[in-house]
Fold these 4 entries.
Entry 1:
Amino acid sequence: MASKQYDVVVIGAGPGGYIAAIRAAQLGFSTACIDEWKNASGGPAPGGTCTNVGCIPSKALLQSSEHYEHAGRHFGEHGIGLDKLSIDVKKMVGRKDTVVKQNNDGILYLFKKNKVAFFHGRGSFVKAASAEQGGGWEIAVAGAADETLVGRQVIVATGSSARALPGAPFDEETILSNDGALRIGAVPGKLGLIGSGVIGLEMGSVWRRLGAEVTILEALPTFLGAADAQVAKEAHKAFTKQGLKIELGVKVGEVSAAKKGRKEGVTVAYTDAKGAAQVLEVDKLIVSIGRVPNTTGLGAQAVGLKLDERGAVVVDAECRTNLPGVWAVGDVVRGPMLAHKAEEEGVAVAERIAGQHPHVDFNTVPWVIYTSPEIAWVGETEQQLQARGAAYKTGTFPFAANGRARALGDTTGLVKFLADAQTDRILGVHIVGPMASELIAEAVVAMEFKASSEDIARICHAHPSLGEATKEAALAVDKRTLNF
Ligand code: FAD
Ligand code: NAI
């Protein structure tokens, strides 16, 4: 079979892969992108975890459930009465599916627009391509039509999948990964989650808002250890007040589905923080204990592509693997498992192939948790600064003192600045509160431009706006807030 030859072949069309393919095509390379994700009718569904079972569908359900919560709990404060509030979960989930499809179609359109050849199927390394083939790597595509491509450069962007608890595989009916968690067709009476990380909090919030009794079991004794401790404490207080039950420091034991004469349901045996044996009985269980890189079936062994003990592709700081002309980006490599990190790496690799010198700084990759209140941060936390013995100043400002937050009726949380004690350079910004996901962008720009807290404090922010809380927190670093 004659092989099709490309300058760049990308395996995986998640945010890392599809963005890398578009950027490579923009730079003038003949580019192919292979992805195996299937929609409900078996057709292509590019966009990866993020588009199909991650960022996009979770935010669609978070938005719907937030509307429901506002209508039920907060409209009254605005003088708006509703006689009868109802919820049609199937319709809500259907809307989410439409949003996903719009994104899948959008990526197929972008491939056409940028002349990226798309192949639907599983891509795997076969062998090094011969000199007559122009060098590079032979990649087999196993799909509706089997093909062989040759890529002079190959970018692996195969992403990650949910990690299961040992002995409790996902059945996606009662023991759910993020996939099943986004397809629940009716509000469960009792919902359990293992892991109070990002997915646990976002998915737990969705189903709590819709009426489920939600319990999250977390192994670590500290809540949201990756976030700044002050922000995590504030968030924990808010979630507990909303009715999310979060048990820290537990040891999860046997997980058994459909036991004790019940047709449905899951029983989780665990030891609580005090060492006492406990049992949690729920209708459905979401397991959100982190993710594993997707490298099975990639043919890594066939060509000697180096993987680490977790199965992640080993790369250097510039996403180069141990094989010449083979790169890897996104969730399948080290670093934060975030869509925007994958995208930045994808762009950077395409530009490196073109001989450019881009740089991705993990310290300015923002984190956002789309709960209510939202949590967002960039840079170092106070505990990280303490651990490295840094001399720093802090400034905080509560949303309770911000006029726009009061008008919105959403005054939970604060903005916190951490700045170098001598130079005033911003080291980290941490937000818990309304629209933290949008507010953090200003802090990312500031850190990219190596701004000081004084720089932000002197910038004119519109009034009334939530952004004024950012300015005030910057002023607070120098103990001169104006409205608190
Ligand atoms: P993926 O998106 O996983 O894409 C990899 C693609 O490669 C998939 O389509 C897969 O089918 C395909 N593939 C794998 N192997 C092969 C093969 N051999 N041949 C062909 N195709 C293959 N991140 C954020 O930044 N913001 C969020 O709000 C957010 N929300 C999330 C919510 C949930 C519930 C989850 C699970 C994740 C969320 N994430 C979020 C994380 C984000 O989804 C990932 O970081 C991101 O998708 C990683 O992109 P990627 O391109 O590396 O991999
Ligand atoms: P996570 O790493 O965020 O959280 C996993 C949690 O599970 C941790 O707190 C961990 O201590 C706990 N845990 C691990 N094993 C356990 C066990 N046996 N018993 C009890 N608790 C246990 O992982 P999560 O939530 O699965 O999400 C995966 C990744 O997806 C995130 O790290 C993030 O990178 C990405 N994501 C990003 C989102 C965003 O940007 N808004 C939203 C959702 C996911």
Note: The chain has a mean pLDDT of 96.
Entry 2:
Amino acid sequence: MLSNNVYIIGAGETKYGELWDKSLRNLAVEAGLKAIENAGIYSKDIDAIYGANGLAGTINEQENIGALIADFSGLSNEGIPSIRVEASTASGGAALREAYLSIKSGEYNVVVVGGVEKMTDIHGSDIIEKMSSILDREWEAFYGATPAAMAAIIARKYMHDFNVEKEALAMVPVNDHLNASKNLNAQYHNKLTLKQAMDAIPVAEPLNLMDCSPVSDGAAAVVLASEEYMKRNKKEGIKIIGSAIAQDYLSVGSRDSIYTLKSTKLAAEKAFRRANVKRDDISFVELHDSFSIYALLELEDLGFVEKGKAKELVYDEIKTGGRIPVNPSGGLKAKGDPYGAVGVGQVVEAYLQLNEKAGERQIKNAKYALLHNMAGTGTSSVIHILEGY
Ligand code: COA
């Protein structure tokens, strides 16, 4: 039977950061078990597992992540199907969407979605080389481009064409670090002044260290359930009211405009249409701000402000209490950027916020959350709109 609605009934995550004492499998299992416990379900209730991961094959030399997760969660004996979903840094959002569709179709009633990445086992140029494999190897990475270099090229052109000062970019990490200072699971807890954000060491100019997300380990998991399961068990949950994914060219040079995130624009249009809510209804957004420039482009391409005008939002309006609060979790910059976990971690934050369990960083009267998870330079974007009570 088709399921009208899909609900989130449990969530859990590990701390994000340089977690030397935890392996890929430890992280996945820790987050998964927290989510299952939080949802109050048992292994017999689980119909399927979707595990998001970006780079375990190259960084950890471990493929077959679905089987790894099921095995080390003690679920292999139950025969529960468990597969990996890979869409670069948007793997988490993509896994959530696949799980959502599997419930919508009527195939499953309860699905666990996990995301995990263990990135800090290799360092320096080695990890940058691996991270660069999400770009077009032949047309970008082969010539020395890294994710930071591509973001810097986009930033230069954008700042030139729309007369945007570096300060506007720096406001993004200032906001992220302030929010992350209230999130125990975040990688960084230090607040950042505008001067510190402006004066950090250059990485790929105009971007400096504070414009870049860090290299991170971490995992997150959520439990989804069908309408039928909710009725049968008299449960309440956060509703997924809009889900969409869209694609753009892999190589930035093939795109019509290097500072328009077409995949974000297309996915946002679909997600808002499906959710039947307006931009003004959104209580907060979790943005995929792997580099500060992307936060500005994303606010524009999600439709919160016209192209070139995000500089009008970043000083005050993105703060908690502003017109459109951004990244209450601390975002990729300060909560951290464990590739496959990011999109699922955004759901964990929304689950806490919409259940009014986000403690010090609670957004008042949070009702609708928009989650934006993006692959690399914008090759794919996955958007979910969630509704609280
Ligand atoms: N923000 C704040 N601090 C950071 C940081 C960041 N992005 N990256 C590293 N640091 C800190 C570390 O915590 C460490 O602090 P400590 O000395 O107090 O322990 C210090 O800087 C040195 O860390 P290290 O890991 O040696 O830094 P690095 O120079 O090797 O790496 C970058 C810095 C910017 C190169 C790295 O963070 C990076 O590549 N980021 C981009 C990630 C990326 O491309 N993601 C892809 C998204 S599509």
Note: Residues 89, 124, 128, 131, 147-148, 203, 209, 212-215, 290, 337, 376 surround coenzyme A (CB under 6 Å).
Entry 3:
Amino acid sequence: MQKTTVLAHSDIALIKYWGKKDKVLRLPANGSLSLILDALQTTTTVAFDVNLGADQVQIDGAVEEGEKSRVIAHLQRIRDLAKQAGLIKTDVFARVMSVNNFPKSTGLSSSSSGFAALTIAASQAIGLQLDERGLSILSRQGSGSSCRCVCGGIVEWIDGDTSDQSYAVQFAKGDVLPIRDLVTIVAEDKKQISSTEGHDLAETSPFFAARQQQISTKLQRIKQAIQARDFITVGEIAEAEALEFHSILLTSQPNIFLLYPGTVEVIHLVRKLRSGGIPVYFTINTGFNVHVLTLPEYEQTVLQALKGLSSVHKVLASGIGDKPQLLKEHLF
Ligand code: DP6
């Protein structure tokens, strides 16, 4: 059992995972598609140690009970697999330390990169030999969207009807369509509702059934547009998807209203730039921060315009990232 450190990137879904067919296994209601983001990173070190009496978990220098119990449940999945494989006879506890280079719990998907890094580091540290599909299936059970972050580039999560059929694959390499994501931070408050709680409410929206009827067509259309390197169509679909997703949030019972004045200001700016001829679109997750999508040649113009808004605190400029990597330097 060797101490292992993994760096994984977060992602932004252009077609969102929202709602679950199976809550325990985290089987999604629909397939989804995301960009892996090279600028948003989680680094995690895991060491199993026979001398520990319990798992020790630290994320960004703190121990938060809700997160800790999810991490421990995931470590237990990995220990159970290791027992089945004959690698350990009884439970061995682990020390886990994780750091993000971006604000967590603000709707920037720190759990997607976090669980991908944890899955790869812990399974390798305990001696499991899993291929990318196996890692994706395992990671999905910790946090659904993290199954995409074990891959690199532009990634599709195939929804699947059973656990073995629900995993992510690379759909295209990043250079097929080199989208830039200007991750625009308007606040670093902790969001009021977790994605996990939100998923459970999806079906209470009267719009959810309508979404399900056309979501696979939408996924096909965006895949065709990516292959055709047609950024305008990709952007149009991604923006419409973000608005549809938020309309589900707004009409869930109880409703989920996450947008801040700054969020709306950024949206208006994106539309104004677009009417001036710049190909730029937005998408938003369960939060108030905005992912502003454009092409490399327009990045500086869009960046300067965003920085001109008083509501914008920070912009993290990201390209499309690779799959996770093993690091030689450990966090402890
Ligand atoms: C809006 O993967 O965080 O970001 O499986 O309960 O951990 P759990 O949910 P999570 O949900 C992410 C939702 C989303 C859309 C997406 O990333 O596809």
Note: Helices lie at 65-84, 110-126, 132-142, 195-201, 208-227, 231-250, 261-275, 299-307.
Entry 4:
Amino acid sequence: MSQNTPLISAKGLSVHFEVGGGVLSRKTLLKAVNDINLDIPKGSFFGLVGESGSGKTTLGRAMLKAAPISEGTVTFDDGDGAIDVAGLRKQALKNYRKKAQLIFQDPYAALSPRMTVRDIIAEPLEVMKITKTRAETDARVREIAAMCRLNVEHLRRFPHAFSGGQRQRISIARALVANPSFLVADESVAALDVSIQADILNLLKSLQKDLGLTFLFISHDLSVVAHSCDHVAVMYLGRLVETAPTRTLFNNPHHPYTRALLSAVPSLDPDDRGKGEKLEGEIPSPIAPPPGCKFHTRCRFAQERCRKEEPQLRKMGDEHFASCHFAEELAKGR
Ligand code: SF4
């Protein structure tokens, strides 16, 4: 399989939830994720960015079948035969869990305070019946703990004895113990201090290289994505608005939303600070999204066409796609 062969692909993927329906309200459809087409190349560290409420967490979970897939397909192919993720049930879904895992955002909430670190890391092996004896389980726990820079002494302790960074290493060890090939890291460094963020990112990158892993790295922070990801997809109100190799996206963003997100990244150059397009207002509710381009209520380039006609993702260059009616003109006039 080449580097660009997708490990996991979404085609027309939508996730809709019914909300309301109590005594005083009617049921409404919340369109959290809409018609997403996305290929995540095998071996990539793929960034997914957007504000809170953009649908990025729901998209990541749908790829693990941890959120309901309303329409479209997700196909996972690690070379052992393609898997139709939306159609998985019972044992087939359990088998998929060995291949595709989630690293949680909050290392404080994700770990049971009543279990030792050894038991926390060992639990997936026992639940999925991957190891047959306690000795086999212990050997695998020690192996993955060492890879995550935890030592044998740590395994006997409880989570409260650890710092945030150490707890996130325990979460990573637990996610990796079943030997998955695909990991969704959902804001996995957001709750940590900046210096610890760098430590965890370096760990994830070295694990990716050593174990040949593929990551979907979800973040609201473009500066974190810039330093770690090789591809980036930008989401707004349940849709992809731009996707490109990281360097292309940062050097030549075509969508006004991407440009606004980038201008919010602090610059080291004092002459650059405060320049660029500010992102005004709030992201609209996915229960009542605006017609036409979903970004038109906040876009300073919006025209009449934008309020009526929804733009589709179009090719802007090699592996570069954006959904804006005027992307080419805006990119030229930067
Ligand atoms: Fe802005 Fe119109 Fe482009 Fe949407 S289609 S991003 S409103 S210029």
Note: Residues 6-99+180-332 form a domain with the Rossmann fold fold (CATH 3.40.50.300).
